[in-house]
């Protein structure tokens, strides 16, 4: 029977973990630690890893047939600048875990970079009351506009639409409020990006949000796109939902 390791990851500074963090579970051992599982952190900071009964570490206080893992977790954050998973926290070891019981491990972490930007707002119905528990996702539209001239007297604008980039997600609270943070570094022009991607590596995001149904069966709302966002104080996008679509 599968047992689970579960809990919540609390990021100091109020930055939502979103899908840019993951939890790895390990069994501490004398020679080499055994990998027990891995999962992404949910938008609300929760995680859950299932593992099956097997022979882990022998417990000297029990019969030889009882083998128990010494469990700890590691939290990793995806560093978009270097495109690597980076360890940001490690829990203590919970020794001699009874495999008949689940293990809860909560952990507070601090991300190594604070170079983030915020997308926030309120989700309400058309009458004004807030909508709680709805998922909001934020996207960068990545629209390029290119001026093309066919003659000295005529000029037209061509629009090249690329697939939108996912920036993050959050769930609305009791007041219908949401807050999503994303790494500003992904829009910075560095020497390395300039050499790899050219001047197109530098661009400001064109941001829109989607509001998803509670049952994740579809999208209730897509906001207009806010283009060329440069504000370091945050980008506010509110949503009014037509209740007939809920």
Keywords, separated by commas or semicolons:
246 residues; mainly beta; Immunoglobulin-like; 2 domains; four-stranded mixed sheet; four-stranded antiparallel sheet; 20 strands
How many DSSP helices?
1
CATH class designation of the largest domain = Mainly Beta
Characterize the largest beta sheet: strand count, sense, and whether it forms a barrel.
4 strands, mixed
Number of domains: 2
In helices, the fraction of residues equals under 10%
Instruction: Determine the structural class based on helices, strands and strand pairing.
Output: mainly beta
The CATH level-2 architecture of the largest domain is identified as Sandwich
Beta content: over 45%
**Gyration radius from CA atoms, angstroms:** 23 Å
Q: Which helices and strands appear, and what pairs or packs with what?
A:
Elements: E1 2-11, E2 21-27, E3 34-40, E4 46-52, E5 57-58, E6 67-68, E7 71-79, E8 84-90, E9 103-104, E10 107-109, E11 116-125, E12 135-140, E13 143-151, E14 154-161, E15 165-171, E16 177-183, H1 191-197, E17 207-212, E18 219-222, E19 235-236, E20 239-241
Parallel strand pairs: 1-9, 1-10, 11-19, 11-20
Antiparallel strand pairs: 1-4, 2-3, 2-7, 5-6, 7-8, 11-16, 12-15, 12-17, 13-14, 17-18
Explain the overall architecture:
Helix content is 3%, strand content 48%. The chain has 246 residues and is mainly β. The chain has one helix spanning 191-197, and strands at residues 2-11, 21-27, 34-40, 46-52, 57-58, 67-68, 71-79, 84-90, 103-104, 107-109, 116-125, 135-140, 143-151, 154-161, 165-171, 177-183, 207-212, 219-222, 235-236, 239-241. The chain is globular. β13 (143-151) and β14 form a beta hairpin. The chain has two domains: 2-109, Immunoglobulin-like, CATH 2.60.40; 116-245, Immunoglobulin-like. The chain contains one helix and 20 strands. The chain starts with a strand and ends in a 5-residue tail after the last strand.
């Amino acid at each position: 029977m599968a047992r689970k390791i579960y809990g919540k990851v609390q990021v100091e500074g109020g930055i939502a973990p979103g899908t840019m963090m993951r939890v790895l579970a390990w069994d501490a051992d004398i020679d080499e630690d055994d990998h027990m599982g891995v999962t992404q952190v949910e938008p609300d900071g929760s995680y859950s890893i299932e593992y099956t009964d097997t022979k882990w570490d022998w417990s000297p206080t029990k019969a030889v047939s009882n083998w128990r893992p010494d469990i700890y977790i590691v939290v990793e954050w995806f560093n978009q600048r270097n495109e690597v998973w980076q360890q940001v926290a490690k829990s203590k070891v919970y020794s001699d875990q009874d495999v008949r019981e689940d293990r809860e491990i909560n952990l507070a972490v601090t991300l190594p970079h604070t170079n983030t930007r915020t997308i926030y707002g309120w989700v309400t119905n058309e009458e004004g009351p807030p909508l709680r528990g709805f998922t909001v996702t934020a996207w960068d539209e990545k629209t390029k506009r290119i001026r093309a001239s066919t003659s000295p007297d005529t000029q037209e604008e061509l629009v090249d639409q690329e697939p939108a980039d996912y920036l993050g997600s959050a769930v609305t609270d009791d007041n219908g409020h949401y807050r999503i943070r994303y790494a500003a570094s992904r829009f910075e022009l560095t020497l390395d990006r300039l050499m790899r991607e050219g001047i197109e590596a530098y661009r400001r995001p064109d941001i829109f949000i989607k509001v998803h149904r509670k049952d994740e069966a579809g999208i209730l709302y897509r906001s207009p796109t806010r283009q060329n966002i440069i504000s370091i104080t945050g980008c506010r996008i509110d949503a009014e939902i037509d209740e007939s679509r809920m």
